[in-house]
Write a structure and sequence with these properties.
By secondary structure, the chain is mainly α. The chain has one domain. It has three helices and no strands. The longest helix has 28 residues. The radius of gyration is 16 Å and the shape is flat. The relative contact order is 0.11. InterPro entries: SWEET, SWEET_rpt. It is a multi-pass membrane protein. Belongs to the SWEET sugar transporter family. Its main location: membrane.
């Protein structure tokens, strides 16, 4: 997801977006299949990790990148 975000911020990076989007789709399918067949305790643990790392971690990096860095500090 970070590579997709980087490619969206940078201009002319269509290949980077497409390859990493395909990787995100494949990984999402894998996680969903795991959650379908995993025991209940493993499902809960995996859901917590996904929410913590993907949503909170990526969200924090996204917000810091967009709002904390301006001018010459921000490399785009």
């Amino acid at each position: 997801m970070l590579w997709i975000f980087y490619a969206l911020v940078k201009t002319g990076e269509g290949l980077l977006i497409s390859i990493n989007a395909a990787g995100c789709v494949i990984e999402t399918v894998y996680i969903v299949m795991y959650l379908v067949y995993a025991p209940r305790k493993a499902k809960i643990f995996t859901a917590k990790i996904v929410v913590l790392l993907n949503i909170a971690g990526f969200g924090l990096i996204f917000l810091l990148t967009l709002f904390a860095f301006h001018g010459e500090t921000r490399v785009v």
